[in-house]
Batch of 4 targets.
Target 1
Amino acid sequence: MPGSAASTPRKEPLEQAGRLLMIGFEGDDPAEAVSLAEEYRPAGFVFFSRNYPGSAESLKSLLAEISSGARRALKRPPILAVDQEGGTVMRIPLEEASLPSASEMTAHAREYGVQSLEYMGYKSGKALKELGFNMNLAPVLDVGAEGSYIGTRSFSSDPVVVAENASYFFAGQRRGGILSCAKHFPGLGQATVDPHSELPVVDANVQDVWHRDLRPFRELAGKGIPAIMTTHALFRAVDPALPGTISSRVVDLLKRDLGFKGLALTDDLEMGAISGTFPMGRLAAEAVSAGHDLVLVCRSPARIEEAREGLLKAVKDFDIAPSRLREARIRLTRLLKRLDWGRGRDRRGALRPGLRPVGGTGGAASGPEAAGGGASGPGPARRRGVPRKGFRSWRDRKSQGAGRTPTFSCRGCGRRTGSTTTRTRSRTCRPARSWWSTPLTPGP
């Protein structure tokens, strides 16, 4: 019909622009959220304390109505995210979903073992899942420092401890059926001011950023965390001109140099650190052009409208490259497919990579022993049809069996490097277009 054919091209830019947004709403009226879903077609919603209706049953009903209404409007499942870090940042004041602060979790891990953090993550993740949420904007991977504003929200001032504790907490959340979003990339541990009010400036050099701030993010990206949130801070070693949420260098560091395959989110664009730099519409378009897959605008309906209009104009005028829109759509679709995966298992019922039974009771853990069978014995038998560890493909195994030297792809520059041992990077790896003035993995 002529009417339907004419409406298709008008709806497509609206759908493309809406998919790039995650929004908030005032109050606890599900009709308001469903109306926003119909109007703006966002990827999902972020919930805060102001949306809590007062009881667990009321919250379940609220989330169920929003989920079903948004699914009908969007023809896809919505992301229903909450900021439930623990300690001072808990949006849902229910005992079953409560958590201690990250620093208290670290003290608990020292006394009872780091696997206790996996149970904490599982318990809170399961409670959030039963309420109706499908994403938790945690854990915090910022490495604490003297005078840092992040305070007790950080696991430790030691990046190794932060990476280990966050890995176990993430494994528990995944086992509980909830998606995790790590934050605040590339790390707010050395920031002394709160980005809710003003822009932090981090003067750390390249070596400090790589070895200290980025270590937890490298660990969690390698373990398959589905989403990472960038922060409103100026990192002079990465990009001396632009804050992380609108900097292509920061997002390239995350996606290309760290090899992150999940969803890249901005922090809330209504925060004081960045809201006054550009109009909201331009901020949203710049964030997506820089490489973010989702833009968060969490409160004001007027700001949400500005962001949507800015994104819509950028889509129509090709200010955002079609390839960038396609990448964002693919990454969002990949995450939405995981929403129905439960208890840390994939569609075939097998444990996902990074999880293994603990004590024969069906628990899960992550860490150095997770993939290799532990420190005290060999790993599980290799299934038929799966290449041995150390071989990237059957072609490599075949070439080695024929007496030829196998080759491996460098994860930094993509070059094929001949070697008799597995390398993660070639010796001459200095990728073009990289902002690093030194090799990506500095030597010892």
Target 2
Amino acid sequence: MKRMRTRHWMTAGLAALLLSACGDGGVDLAEGGITGSGISVGPITGFGSIWVGGVHFDVSNAEFIRNGQSTGETQSAFQIGEMVSITGEVNPDGISGVATRVEFDRDLAGMVTAVSTDGTTIEIMGQTVRADELTILSGFNSLSSLQLGNVMEVSGIRGADGILMASTITLDQGSFVASLSTLEVEGRVSELNPDDLTFKIGKLVVDYAQAVLPDISKGITAGEYLEIKSNLNLQNGVLKASALRQDQEYPSFTTDSFVRLEGRITQFSNTGVFSVTGQPVSLTPDTVIDNGSLDDLGLGILLGVEGVIDEHGVLEADRLSIRQSADPTSLVELQGTIEGIDAENQTLQLQGEPVRIDSNTLMLDWQSGGKQTLTFAGLSTGDAINMAGRRLASGEILALRLDRGLPKADDTDSTNTDTNTDDAGTSTGGTSKIHGLASQVDTASHRLVIAGVTVITDTHTVYRNTGRSLERDAYFSLLQSGQSMVMATGKRTANQQLLARELKLLTE
């Protein structure tokens, strides 16, 4: 999305003032900070309506847009961790609101073009994708398990170095399937060759000889930001574009907009200039800084900021909430059982350490064998927990991500269930959603296996493909073992099979 180019400096005196005034807790404002109509951008941290940026949005009357198309569905079309933009109203309490629009646009879709050798980076469609302790992996358990040709979808934030820092990475298909797979990449044009009608996005060569150019009447220019799509497999590593369009690298906002933005620092200098997800930010003596100081800031650091867009396109920050720190020694990862819970202060004891949970902590529950959202109220003493967080100057640990009952390393890599309920962190009494590659497809008995779970059907099962309802036999005729990515929603039976109420073939 388009990067704002207005520069805004902070004086050395102001920086000194902010440094001396800030601490782990900051200065209290009215709870939640800015309220009113505006836009919230960040990863989904919970369901039961949708949680983004510490705000619980009622989405019962919202319009849902996914990859440029109205889904006609509810929050079930979205995954925890995906970067979304929510338009709506934040209530005076600062922690609840009403959404009128929820929008998601993936950043990358396509094949693994180079496997991971370090377990933290991987190349997809010639683009370097990086994962960290906050990245949600769906359909597999580690980057190292992915193979060349696996078809992936990535949501995240592209840094100034061109690396895509992933908030979610999803295994869509085992390999490219004609008529099912769509490839999509975006980035800045380099090595433009108008004679051969080719250019590069990262390491990927794009051939645009047959592409539809709906909004590029002037032609393609080096350095501009484009989105490219294709329904063809890579040919000798070259993407044969079917359509391309100009795009914006980062979100853009209008003057006087109220904005809540959770993202990563994409521009930073020691003069006090920085941008969050491409949005220039300025601080004032009244800016409240939570969970640290300016010393914690640096390229790629995750933080939240809220304020108003001024006439120069700069977000004047009312509050800055620092999630990560430039100091690598502040990262803490703990594994163990909860030894105690302080509900009043939203803290728990883990391995003798005090751990604070806040409204931005990413909380996942794997106890039932799938991925569900979790709330602090759902935790109990004795729960087995994995926690990634940051040690504050006070000695307290701020939890960034907490997982209860993580899947074992030897669990199947295609496991991904995600139950969205009407109340964040609760179960729907056995309702499960399983997402993974279909195997052992039986067209006679109309059953299949997903992520090691046998999925059975009955006369009430609904079958869908690209939003269309299908008859049972027509649906099963489309399934290919080891190729088709399927989402099944239903209830567990006494023998731990899943009786599907809906089977959805995931395709464009």
Target 3
Amino acid sequence: MGGILNLNMKKLAGIIALLIFQLFLVGRGERLCAQVLVNNGGLIFSTNDTIYTNGGVSNEANGTFSNSGQLYINSSGSDPGYWSNIAGNAGFTNSAGVQGASTITCYLIGGNQNIEGNATTEFHNLRLRGSGIKQLNGVDAIVHDTLDLSTFELATGTNRLYVTNTDPNAIENVHSQGFVSSLAGGFLARNTAQASRYVFPVGSSIGQFRYRPVEVAPVNSASNQYAVRFFNDMADNDVPAYPVAQRQATMSRVNEYYYHNITREQGASPADITIYYDAASDGPTTGIAHWQNAPQWEDIVSSPDAPNYGYSSYTRQAWDFSNTSPAFALMKLINECGEMFVPTAFSPDGNGENDMECVYGKCVEELYFAIYDRWGEKVFETTDMTQCWDGTYRGRQMNTAVFVFYMKANLTDGTEVVKKGNISLIR
């Protein structure tokens, strides 16, 4: 069916015609096609059917959709394929009645597509397909069941996207590709009711593309709502309200590339906060900082966590949100790992004191340690911090002499340490 399909339920004839059409669709798995679908005050209902628009949907005059099938919204030529809700309601009804509750799945399958209008749309299942960027244009949106980002960016701008389903798996995406981006005032919010990790797949395509997810894990199963926004580069036109130079004296660096706003919007439960980062491109990192007190960036005592999604991570446990500043950033403490130390002498005489030649240090991720005699022959090597030299070579005790060592270590904060020197073996 070409052109605009205008469903005007204010006219009795239109009601009768639509009801007959609906009865024809129910149970048949039929497909209703239109270029632009205008719902001018109607109740559009079908069971397990597909509505396909090749130009967009305009929901008007208190119109509603009550449907257990699929609504596909595509773009075509001059028709951008937008979802526009100016009906003064949620768009998709969830009220029970003779037709039952709505579980419609809305697919955005065009190019760059907007969710817009003057009323907040309450989707049940929202799935992104097609191409381009999908965005909220001047309105908030709610997803009650599943948000499927797939490989696409959903840009909220200065608006807010709420996912109310408390299942930790309510958001689906291909990590590093499907994400939510926001500008100042906007965010992705999730309702929680489990002591589980809830992922917030946030990122930005403004400036340097970055995908940096956050996980929020409430400490209990009480009802809460948490929100996350990713601030990238200072390239998204925000005022840099949290200068990286304002930091505790114990810090050598606060990540200058990005930070996250993380807030608790509803509820009272503390939560573990995990921030994921790219160790190769985000610079040396030893923990999480929070903007507070002076104000300045301050260390909030976090620990390395298991890698996931292809990224490294740090977790701050049981953050109680009593400090209402939203800003969290990755940071590096000054000399967090301390100095690597190789003793210059040892005496392997079996008296229990200084019998072994070892490497000492913290934060060691990779190690190579070798010892050579004066003729350059290697008498000991290891890549294990727990292995030390006992002063023997091929089962034979070495005599008192001076040896040469070479040590190279990569630390967890990204630092590389190389040391060379002499070791005196004394018997």
Target 4
Amino acid sequence: MTDDPNPSSAAQSPPSLPEGEPLETAVLFVDLVSSSDFASVLGLREYARYIDSFEQLCRTQCEHFFRVARHYDWKSAHVPYEIQFLGDELIVYMHTDKRHRDVYQLLALAITLKCGWLGTALNKERLQAGAPSAELAAGIHVGSVWAQRTPTGYKRRGFTINVAKRVESASREGQNFRIYVSDPAMKRVNRQIRNVLFSPRKIVQMKGVVVPVGVYEVMDSFINPGPTQTKPPRLEPSLFEGFANVAQFALDTNAFDLWIHSCLQVADEARNGKKVTDDNLERCRRILNIDPKNACALHHLAQGLRDRGEFETALLVYQDLTSHWPGFADGWLEMGKTLKMTGDLTAARNAILQARRCGVEGHEEPLPELPAPGASHLI
């Protein structure tokens, strides 16, 4: 017997679907490269500690990063982001009304996580033993997910998350920062940000994705992981200290991990009041012996030479920089400023116009006024 007057009604009524809504979301996946190799040689307890150290670092850095971002970037107490862990992977979701800013913040977070991970005791021990550092790879994608509200945020479902994971998987084959952004993510930030340089678009076939996906690798970055005179570091202070202590040694041993140089060089310049020290200048020269096209080394070498009054040599370096990276707005801008200093106003004007084509606002550097034709002959 049952109290239901119509026993078959429960079977006939479909279960109610949870409420939800489409939500455009920026997704970051960060993964430990070669974690399976570690799992095959470490005991269960040691491998668990390895994964736990990664998770703890990510939690510490994410909490610090978004606390700084709330105060200095959004200037708001509420920033809609969530983090999750899936095995040896970190997933970060963001969905503000500023789509390009979401992608940029996730780029900055991925770079700071790489710096923090490099400075861990594990990597310090590996480097001292002559082994390569354990690496992180990251992928960023933007798209709509089906979002159901929960007491702590959202429960998300959708193909966007799958694609973000595939972008991260592809990034392990990268040659520079091992951070890939997808076509949709690139559209949000292209010409919106000036301190990150990307590779040309490349098509990768991804498992489970029928249509090939276009991706771009972060080739160089001028994002400062350290403190400035007016702002705390993007990288949590104790993690930044670890990175700063290990970075130069890592460069001396991992010759082709040049992303380390870029992060260290930018942090050093900010710490020294935007000045390139003699040690930094020499570091740039050593990096250019390895990679003559390295944007960060070229930029800071030219800046250091200009600060020392070596204008002609600085201009030669700026010519290399803008030749290798014609879309780098600040390369053109600094070249224009240097040409102004030498009195070559026509060339300075052309360089500043190139900078404006690449995204520099007109108020940042006025165009020099050229003398009227024949004015120099007037008495």
